Amino acid sequence: xxxxxxxxxxxxxxxxxxxxxxxxxxxxxxxxxxxxxxxxxxxxxxxxxxxxxxxxxxxxxxxxxxxxxxxxxxxxxxxxxxxxxxxxxxxxxxxxxxxxxxxxxxxxxxxxxxxxxxxxxxxxxxxxxxxxxxxxxxxxxxxxxxxxxxxxxxxxxxxxxxxxxxxxxxxxxxxxxxxxxxxxxxxxxxxxxxxxxxxxxxxxxxxxxxxxxxxxxxxxxxxxxxxxxxxxxxxxxxxxxxxxxxxxxxxxxxxxxxxxxxxxxxxxxxxxxxxxxxxxxxxxxxxxxxxxxxxxxxxxxxxxxxxxxxxxxxxxxxxxxxxxxxxxxxxxxxxxxxxxxxxxxxxxxxxxxxxxxxxxxxx
Length: 363
Ligand SMILES: Nc1nc2c(ncn2[C@@H]2O[C@H](COP(=O)(O)OP(=O)(O)OP(=O)(O)O)[C@@H](O)[C@H]2O)c(=O)[nH]1
Ligand SMILES: [Mg+2]
Prior knowledge:
Blueprint lengths: L2 H36 L1 E7 L5 H11 L6 H30 L8 H14 L8 H12 L1 H12 L13 H4 L8 H6 L6 E9 L2 E9 L5 H5 L7 E7 L6 E2 L2 E2 H15 L5 E7 L1 H10 L27 H20 L6 E6 L5 H12 L3
Parallel strand pairs: 1-3, 1-4, 4-7, 7-8
Antiparallel strand pairs: 2-3, 5-6
Helix pairs in contact: 3-4, 3-6, 4-5, 10-12, 11-12
The protein binds guanosine-5'-triphosphate and magnesium ion (MG).
Guanosine-5'-triphosphate binds next to helix 2 and helix 11.
């Protein structure tokens, strides 16, 4: 082979190599496109305290990324202890408000109340052992517990007591948060967060603009790339007020604006969240839905499918709330988007996995 032929052969091989690269790139692009089109892209919207962060954390757990590394773990431990401190401060404020004389007959309770009040004023609190002792003494006191329970059932105290029940675990120097601890931890870090996860071999990509609620400007930015909007509602908030407006009514108003302005190509997945708290409130009977939504007095569900063993009062309450939202989406007519409603409990991993599995076929 002469030099000229050698150069020709080299050129051919180079061309062949380039063709190979182009073929491989095409194959990869095709695969990316297939995965992109098969992925359900969801935007998480909802009102304050509706449960969006909890749903996002469940998605991270489903992705196998509950905590990414030691630094995230240390931050989570600090946040959980700060949540515990905020919770016991709420307890103290509630006791002082509802039973101002609570500690007078119990000097040791008074001591613990005073300790927590002084701790609440401290910045960069170091969580000394006595903090946990005082917090536990208060939380175990029957009078304090009774006062908190009354306040909670009347909607005056929004603190579940989850961390207070786990003081002895959380105080350990080598404490490692469980999935449930992470789910119950409340933190506010503004920004858009995203996570990818799979349920029943269907891929989801979830976006959560933390710190923003229903504002239409938010989702308008994403709309071309979305498969659905997940609209989260605190179903137990029928008796709560936020800035002078009933919280559930505010959610209904925002739902109307989302449903009537989002394109019909989009699906709205309505997550009627906090079903456990709704059931608890309805069964306690202290706070009645008809006192806030008078039409409830004449409501009978038409197509209810109760959960096994569910109390009929709970079925009626949850379907009443569902129907209020669905009548809004129907009123938007063909201009609006499709809507599908789901009863959720964001702190229950199995419930959410099941709901995402149902959603996979809808979007
Ligand atoms: N029992 C119960 N608690 C829930 C449920 N969903 C959320 N929570 C609790 O409700 C509180 C608020 O939940 P988040 O997930 O922080 O709500 P959010 O919508 O992100 O709220 P903000 O971002 O603070 O406006 C937390 O203490 C959660 O643990 C639920 O279904 N059941
Ligand atoms: Mg949040």
